[in-house]
Every structure is written in C-alpha cells, then in structure tokens.
C-alpha cells in the first residue's frame, strides 16, 4: 500500500457520520424553532392553527367546503365562457349523478343562473348528452318555453295487449336501464324550466272578474311554484312533504287529473310544464328511496280513537273526495270512519278507472296512510239504506261528509236499447275493474269481447276507458261521437292513446236505433244518424244536428258512455237535504261545503254532477278545513261521542258469519247470517247484495227474514250457478266476503177494506221473499191469500207444522188463506199458481192487489191474467245486478208509460214494479244474457 492510499473505513462509519451531522442540524433547528416560537408572528399562526383544528373536529365538512368553494369558482368560470365544452359537461353531469351534497349544490347553482346561462347549459346538455339520453335530443330548441322532456309511454303495440300502466312517467325510464338518479336529473331538467311566476296562475288560476271564481288553477291548491323550486334546487324530499301537506293522494290525482284544463292550462310557457307528471313522480320516487317511509312518518301520530280528543266524523264514500277528507281529518287528530258501499275501497277510482291508467296499488297506498293515522273503514255499507245520515249522527258521529259520487248511468232512450249486450260503461268497467270478470279465476260474467265488434257511444274519458278496455280484451272497437274529434271532452292524451292502440273513430254520428237478432235478443247492428255541427250550445261547443242521412254498422256489444245522473238514495233517505232539479245535493251557501242539513257536508259528483277526480278531491279538502275549524263540542261530550262511534264502527265492520244452516229441499239452503246493521234497517220487500268469497260474484238475495235484536238475517239460496252452489256448500262458522243492504225500496203497504184480500203468488223460491211482505200486511190488518206453487210435493218447504207459513196461520187465523199448487198434482191444486188465481178472479173475489214473486215466466203469466180484470199487480224483480245501488244500470227494466218505452231499475225503482207497465217481451230475454258464460263456468268447475 502506498503512503497516499486511504485505509478503508469500518463498516457503518458513513451512517454514523451522517447521523452526527443530522443531529447537529436538528439541534440547531430546534434552537431556531424555540427562538421563533417566541416571536409574535409565529404565536399568532399557532393560535389560528389551533382554532382551525377545533373547528374541523366540531364540523368536519368545513374543510371540504373550502375545496368545494374553489371547485364552484371553477364551475362559475366555465359558465362565463361562450359555450360549455364536452369534457366539462360530462364531468359536471357525472358530479350531479353522485347524489351527494356536492351534486345538490350544483343543482342549486344551475337553478340560480340567469335564463341566458341556463340556456347555455341546456344547449350543452343537448349537444353532449343526447346520445346517452335520447329523450334530451332537441331539448335546447325553443327552451324553456317550447321544449320539454316527455315521460316514458309504452309503445302502442305492446301496451294494447295488457292492463299494464301505459304512461309510466319519468320513472318509466328505469325500464330502459337508466338509474333512479338519472331519472332525478331528468325531472330536475324539467323543473328548471319553471318561470317562478309571481302571480302563480298554475296554482291560483287566472282571475277574470271580481267576485267570480278564477279560471284554471289547482283545485287542491298545491303550491306549485314552491314545489318546482324545491325540485329545481335538488330538495326532492322537501318537495314531497310540501305536496302531501296539500294533497295526500298526488300519485292518484296526478295521473287522472286533467292538468291540461287546470294547472297546465294557465302555464305561460307555450309547451306547459309537466306539472302532473312531477306530482306523481315524487311519491313514487319516495317508495324507491325510502321504503317503509309511511310507517315511520306516521308512527308518531297518536291514534285519534284512543286519544278521543276530538269528535268523530263519518265519511260517506271512499272516492277521491272521501279519501282526501278522511286523510286530512285523521292527520289533525279526528277519529274518522269511512263507509263504502262496495267491498273494495276507492269508489270511482277503482271501479271506473282501468289499471292501465291508475294502478289499484296507488289507491291502496292512500288507504294504508289513512289506516296508519287511525282512520277506519267499513265496506258493504250503503248510507241511505244500511243507515241514514241521522242514524250516523245518532251513533255518535259529530259531522258527516257525503262523497257518494254520481249515480245512475244515462241512456239515449232510442229503440233497441233494451237489447242484450247494450250496457252502460259503468257496468262494463265495474265488471272488469272491480270484479275482474276478465280473469279466469273469478265468477262474474262478462260479455264476449274477443273478436267482436264493439261500439262505444260517447267522447269523454269514460268512453276512452271503456274502448281501451275492450281493445285489451280483444275487441274490434269503434268510438261513436256526435260531434267532431276537436269537440271531444276526453283528455287529449287519452284520445291519442286510444287511436294509437287501433281504436276506430266515427265522428259526427249518433245512434238512432239498435237492431237485434230476433231469435237471441242480442244486438247485432246500430243505425247511426249522420250529423253536422250547427251553432254553439250552452257548453260553447257547436250543436250537433241531424242531416237526415243514416248508415248502419255491425255491433256485437254496445257500451253507452254518456255520463251519469244523480243517484237518489241519499236524497230519498233524508228529505231535509235540499237538492237541485238534477238531483244533486245543494250546498248551503257559496264558499262552503256544508249542505242545508247542519253538520252534513258534501262534495264531488254528489254536488257537482259529473266532474273530475281532482275537483272532487278539492271539495273533500275544503270540507275538511271547514270541519277542522268548527269544533265546538265540550270535552266530556267528545269522549262519549268517540266511544259510541267506535262501538258502532265495530258493529258495522263485524264479519258476516254464517251462524246456522238448514236444508229446505234439494238444492235449497236456509242460512242465518250475522249482519247487525242490515237487520236493524231491514223492511219487507228489500234484498241484500251478497259477496260469497273473494273471486266470486255479487249476488242479489231477497231478505227472507231478520232479527234486529239478534243482529241476524235469513237468506234462502237455491243452487243455480257456480257462486250459489259454492255458497250453499258453506257451513256455520264460515264468513261471507260481504253482505250489503238492505237494498231496493220496501213494499208499499196500504190498509185495505176487510172484504178485500191481498193475493201473493209465490212460485218455487218465491215463498221466502213473499213471507215477510205477507207478514207485514197481516200485521197491518189486511186479509192475505197465499198461493204457493212448487214443482212437486218433495220440493215444498216452510209449510209443515211449526214452520213459518203455519206459524202465520196460527197467529192470524182466518185472516190468512193458504193455497198450495204443485205442477204434478202431488199436493194441493194440480198445475200452476195461475189456476187458483184465475178461479178467484172469475168468481169475483175482491182483490186489493196481487204481489207476484218467482220465476219470470210465472210472473208474466200472473200479470197477463190480472190485467184484463184491472187488478193492481206488482212483480218483485230479482234482475241481473252488479252493484245493486243504481250505479251500474245493469238491472234495467223496460216499462211503457204513456205509450213511451222508458227505463226503470230494479235496485232503485224496485224491486217491486207495476207488472202491467213492464214490457215482458223485452224484459224476459235479459235473464239469458249470460247463459253461455254461466254454462262455461259450470263446466270449468266440473258442475
């Protein structure tokens, strides 16, 4: 090694030297830091840093907000450029899709932009996102006044084959693979079109003159501009809460309300805002975002019946006016009971509107909310029959709201209207919508539609519903309307959908006669008058005038959709209520929903005649506000009233249990059924509507007897069709799905001279309905002659010692005379009941009147026999019925008055009708209307 060579360092010496150097530097730095710590500047910095640390612990978002502020400054810079670039718009949209605080801030930023900058944004969205979202293509053209994002509507060829929802709204785009958040943004883009008009014409309407109601506007007073602002600033939940505070059923009314004639008609945009679509989007969105939200929302509401802090209210009818009334009152702590005539809730919303327009689930949603608020429901309860309004007041209810809807369907009274398969739209839609007659699993019959020529007469929304329903059932459907398409009162959307689905339109045509098959009694063609338009009528539309020309078209089914007249049940049961000349309930004064009967309120079609669901909802809302502000009941009385009303509700809602059963003769069973409210009101001559089981059909059965104290009714059922056979197979302890009544008018009873007799001809199953009428005449002091006919002695019942007829003989002695007739002569007089009746007539026996009940041909025979003798004769007609309250018009009875053929209805005008007025040739074929369908059902069940 040379003297100049450096000896090698021990291993690790370099690390040691580096450590010594770093330590020296650290000591120097520590000294410097300690020296700087004492300076004022560093002390101030340390204090500020400590303050920031404490702030971040208390509010972690604050640090993020610093960066958001910088980001928003960058966004604002972009919006100051002449146009928005693709990269920026895509990034911005992706940030909006995050559905977090940042996206909400961006939504508010865009909402607050001046109109010019919003147009810049929409132009960029159109240019850079429409490939991803085809519904945005062309959005910037004429935006915001003329351009809108349309909701998702299913293609006509697809939707015309089923009952699935047609207009699926904005959320329908999820069917195409878009996410819920993407749909949120589509709705947001629609909301930012809003002008935020200071006078809010969409909500308040357009004021025309002082002291006159505004035109257009929202009948339920939804705060539309505020709702738009909340959506436009990303506050969807707050928008829903605002909406539901005004209208608890927005996803119902939003679908069926004619927005184009209400809120959207007042919109200042050339292409109006999609207000209705946004209204029903909000609650449907909430189901996706917050499943079970209703239960949580209402969990803090105490049960009004338990609290008993406010007096109870009865709501008559569960249509739109009744439901909104019940909801608002229950939400304010009022105990409410809703009384519904049908076995299902919803009124016209359920039986009148097909599910392709309004899914039943949405009605169920509203009902569920009312139940969560403590509201109660009683079905199969016909106010005016089951109980009067006064009965409800006596039962403890403080106030009553009547929302019974319209009533009897209108017909044209043209020749041939009595033919089979000429029916009202109410009946047709009820059979399909409520009774699901189109399902193989149900028993309600429906006219054959598949491949048939169907004419729907009318141009309103009901006509569209009937036509589109018929199309879905396979019919070849044509709308017949006496004016042009431009004058049709149906919603434009509904008419367009109908035409898209292949439904034909015959404008300027009006039926003058229906032609029938002489062998079957079914309609086969219609003669149509060719019309032209004259001068405008009271509605402002040009009056249709006949040209004198006619044409004939084939028709296998004719559905009359001409509107409704008022149902007389409430009016007839409560004469203290004033009604108009049209039968609608008069209100006490302008600006109130109270009727002329204090404490009774009304709204919807019951007061307006034919109107809309949203107007009905507005009336129900207005009535609720009046009731809420009118509590003047002492607290002690409130407790008593709530207790009484609760007990009455329990009784009315009790199950229709079969308590006893007895076989009377082959195929005929006597059932004793618990029905306390029916038994309380029953009168001789009335009947009930029985719903044996879910999936069955509604059967009218005459009340054979009742016991008001025991709360029971007696029914006698003959096994004929599937439903009656199934009913007769039920046993004590089984529960009927529903029993409604008593229905129809009770028998007219008069005290006759002692030398006259009231004759009853009862054929077969006619004896049970004859029995209570006969008993009342006897109690009145009249002499009675019963002529009871059976096919053979083995089929006789109620005739043995100790049974009903014998008991009457024992009680009333010689004031009752009984004659039995059997077809085969095995007991009593051989032959029909007409034989002893004829002998009485020819012998000159003084007969006050004849009541005939039994097989239709027998009743006609009796009527024909008594007519030449001038003896008053009434026939009790158990005709074809669906609802049995006058709504459907199915139980049409053709009668001749002053040489003119008119319609009566067995369930409203009867069941007892002057038999000498009945056109039996036209009436009798009606009993064969569904003969083929009933045979198919029996075969399907192996019966």
TrEMBL record:
Domain of life: Bacteria
Name of a matching Pfam family: DHODB_Fe-S_bind
SUPFAM superfamilies: alpha-helical ferredoxin (SSF46548), Ferredoxin reductase-like, C-terminal NADP-linked domain (SSF52343), Nucleotide-binding domain (SSF51971), Riboflavin synthase domain-like (SSF63380)
Gene3D superfamilies on file: Alpha-helical ferredoxin, FAD/NAD(P)-binding domain, Nucleotide-binding domain of ferredoxin-NADP reductase (FNR) module, Translation factors
CDD domains named in the record: DHOD_e_trans_like1
Residue stretches making up the FAD-binding FR-type domain: 651-749
MF (Gene Ontology): iron-sulfur cluster binding; oxidoreductase activity
Protein name, entry field: FAD-binding FR-type domain-containing protein
Higher taxonomy: Bacteria, Bacillati, Actinomycetota, Actinomycetes, Micrococcales
């Amino acid at each position: 090694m040379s003297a100049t060579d450096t000896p090698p360092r021990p291993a690790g010496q370099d690390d040691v030297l580096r450590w010594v150097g770093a330590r020296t530097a650290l000591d120097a730095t520590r000294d410097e830091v300690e020296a700087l710590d004492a300076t004022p500047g560093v002390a101030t910095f340390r204090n500020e840093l400590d303050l920031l640390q404490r702030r971040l612990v208390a509010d972690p978002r604050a640090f993020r907000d610093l960066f958001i502020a910088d980001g928003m400054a960058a966004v604002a810079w972009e919006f100051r450029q002449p146009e928005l670039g693709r990269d920026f718009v895509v990034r911005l949209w992706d940030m909006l899709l995050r559905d977090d605080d940042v996206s909400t801030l961006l939504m508010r930023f865009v909402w607050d932009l001046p109109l010019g900058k919003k147009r810049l944004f929409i132009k960029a969205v159109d240019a850079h996102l429409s490939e991803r979202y085809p519904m945005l293509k062309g959005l910037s053209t004429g935006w915001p006044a003329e351009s809108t994002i349309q909701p998702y509507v299913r293609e006509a060829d697809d939707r015309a084959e089923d009952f699935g929802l047609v207009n699926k709204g904005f959320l329908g785009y999820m069917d195409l693979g878009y996410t819920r958040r993407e749909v949120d943004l589509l709705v947001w883009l629609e909301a930012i079109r809003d002008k935020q008009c200071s006078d809010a014409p969409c909500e308040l309407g357009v004021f025309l003159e002082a002291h006159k109601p505004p035109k257009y506007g929202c009948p339920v007073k939804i705060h539309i501009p505020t709702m738009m602002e909340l959506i436009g600033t990303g506050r969807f939940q707050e928008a829903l809460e605002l909406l539901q505070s005004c209208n608890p059923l927005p996803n119902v009314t939003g679908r069926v309300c004619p927005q184009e004639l209400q809120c959207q008609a007042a919109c200042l945009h050339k292409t109006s805002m999609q207000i209705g679509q946004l209204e029903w989007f909000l609650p449907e969105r909430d189901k996706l975002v917050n499943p079970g939200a209703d239960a949580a929302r209402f969990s803090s509401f105490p049960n009004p019946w338990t609290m008993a802090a406010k007096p109870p209210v009865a709501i008559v009818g569960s249509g739109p006016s009744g439901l909104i009334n019940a909801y608002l009152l229950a939400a304010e702590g009022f105990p409410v009971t809703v009384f519904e005539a049908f076995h299902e809730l919803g009124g016209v919303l359920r039986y009148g509107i097909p599910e392709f327009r309004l899914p039943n689930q949405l009605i169920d949603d509203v009902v569920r909310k009312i139940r969560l608020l403590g509201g109660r429901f009683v079905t199969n309860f016909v106010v005016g029959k089951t109980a009067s309004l006064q009965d409800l007041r006596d039962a403890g209810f403080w106030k009553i709201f009547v929302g019974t809807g319209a009533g009897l369907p209108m017909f044209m009274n043209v020749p041939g209207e009595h033919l089979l398969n000429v029916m009202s739209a109410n009946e047709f839609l009820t059979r399909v919508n409520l009774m699901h007659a189109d399902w193989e699993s149900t028993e309600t019959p429906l006219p054959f539609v598949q491949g048939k020529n169907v004419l729907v007469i009318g141009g309103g929304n009901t006509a569209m519903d009937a036509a589109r329903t018929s199309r879905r059932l396979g019919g070849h459907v044509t709308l017949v309307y006496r004016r042009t398409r431009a004058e049709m009162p149906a919603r434009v959307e509904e008419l367009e959908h109908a035409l898209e689905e292949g439904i034909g339109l015959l404008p300027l045509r009006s039926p003058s006669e229906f032609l029938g098959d002489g062998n079957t009694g079914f309609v086969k063609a219609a003669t149509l008058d060719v019309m032209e338009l004259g001068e405008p009528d009271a509605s402002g539309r040009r009056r249709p005038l006949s040209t004198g020309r006619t044409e004939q078209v084939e028709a296998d089914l004719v559905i009359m959709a001409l509107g409704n007249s008022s149902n007389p049940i409430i009016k007839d049961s409560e004469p203290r209520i004033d009604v108009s000349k049209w039968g609608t309930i008069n209100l006490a004064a302008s600006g109130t929903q109270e009727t002329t009967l204090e404490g009774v309120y009304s709204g919807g079609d019951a007061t307006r005649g034919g109107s809309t669901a949203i107007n009905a909802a507005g009336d129900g809302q207005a009535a609720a506000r009046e009731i809420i502000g009118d509590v003047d009941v002492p607290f002690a009385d409130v407790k008593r009233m709530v207790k009484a009303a609760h007990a009455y509700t329990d009784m009315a809602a009790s199950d229709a249990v079969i308590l006893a059963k007895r076989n009377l003769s082959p195929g005929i069973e006597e059932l004793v059924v618990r029905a306390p409210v029916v038994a309380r009101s029953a009168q001789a001559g009335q009947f009930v509507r029985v719903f044996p089981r879910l999936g069955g059909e509604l059967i009218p059965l005459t009340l054979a007897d009742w016991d008001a104290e025991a709360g029971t009714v007696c029914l006698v059922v003959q096994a004929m069709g599937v439903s009656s056979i199934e009913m007769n197979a039920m046993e004590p302890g089984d529960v009927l799905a529903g029993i409604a009544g008593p229905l129809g008018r009770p028998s007219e009873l008069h005290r006759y001279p002692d030398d006259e007799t009231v004759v009853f001809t009862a054929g077969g199953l006619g004896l049970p309905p004859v029995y209570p009428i006969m008993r009342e005449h006897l109690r009145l002091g009249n002499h009675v002659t019963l002529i009871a006919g059976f096919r053979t002695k083995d089929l006789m019942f109620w005739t043995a010692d100790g049974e009903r007829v014998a008991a009457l003989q024992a009680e009333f002695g010689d004031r009752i005379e009984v004659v039995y007739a059997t077809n085969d002569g095995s007991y009593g007089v051989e032959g029909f009941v007409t034989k002893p009746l004829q002998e009485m007539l020819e012998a000159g026996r003084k007969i006050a009147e004849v009541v005939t009940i039994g097989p239709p041909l027998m009743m006609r025979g009796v009527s024909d026999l008594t007519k030449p003798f001038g003896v008053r004769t009434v026939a009790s007609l158990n005709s074809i019925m669906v609802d049995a309250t006058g709504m459907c018009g199915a139980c049409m009875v053709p009668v001749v008055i002053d040489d003119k053929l008119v319609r009566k209805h067995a369930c409203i005008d009867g069941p007892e009708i002057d038999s000498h007025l009945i056109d039996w040739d036209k009436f009798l074929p009606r009993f064969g209307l569904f003969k083929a369908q009933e045979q198919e059902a029996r075969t399907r069940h192996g019966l």
